[in-house]
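Curious: explain these tokens?
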Amino acid sequence: MGRWLVTGTTGQLGGAVAELSQDLDFEIFCPTRSEMDLSDPDAIRASMAAQNLDGVINCAAYTAVDKAESDAEIAHAVNGTAPAILAEECARRSIPIIHVSTDYVFDGTKQAPYDEDDPVNPLGIYGMTKLAGENAIRATGVQHAIVRTAWLLDPKGRNFLTTMLRLGGERDELQIVSDQVGNPTSVGDLAQAVLTIAQQLRDKSGTWHFVNQGEASWFELAAYIFKQAEKFGVRAPQLTPIPTTSYPTPARRPANSRLATRKLARDFGIEAQSWQHAVDSILEEHFR
């Protein structure tokens, strides 16, 4: 496997990739922001020049979807420009880049799960900047794996599961959007998939989707989280389903975030567990 640069290791996904890589024949370089500021192209180039690398896994992203609407310059620097620079440097060295992207490149109007080659049409700044990063990587001609995912959950950090548990402890009733549907996905499962791709990429290049199996609305996901959390002594609040129109946000969300994973299973043999099993494992770790 050699030595790979992993960006974003202070975040949930990058941290999980770094942790899981310890069990593999896989040496990783995890620069701090002072060592590699992703908003500074010169810093990216200088940091990579100082390392003998065999590949890059880019887990870093500006993920504040609503804040991106008023912070477009920084969002584009991290989500669009930084992947472009990383890919250019990889192309210069003839090494591959694995880049994690998002369901937000789609507009959510399709009535079935999105395939990798479906037309893209992001609804907001976050999705637009992530798509810019994807396109910049492809334009360099570098060997790449762009891995789109959605609805990430983790035992720690800020995500829907930890937010629900926090709000459930503060309020007797929660109103949850019920008309957006997606595939709840474990950060740990995604990290494992990314490392499997790194091990098996060889001469392959392209775009793949990874999510846990099965679908749910945010309301259905919240209901399952609280039902399972009762085993750990959590008192479930009353949950009320509401439409998206009753919960306005600065950024529009895709109504359908479901992603098809057949291509990933075919090319890498990666079969994800159900989102319910993933949530069970996340809750066990959260309350451990």
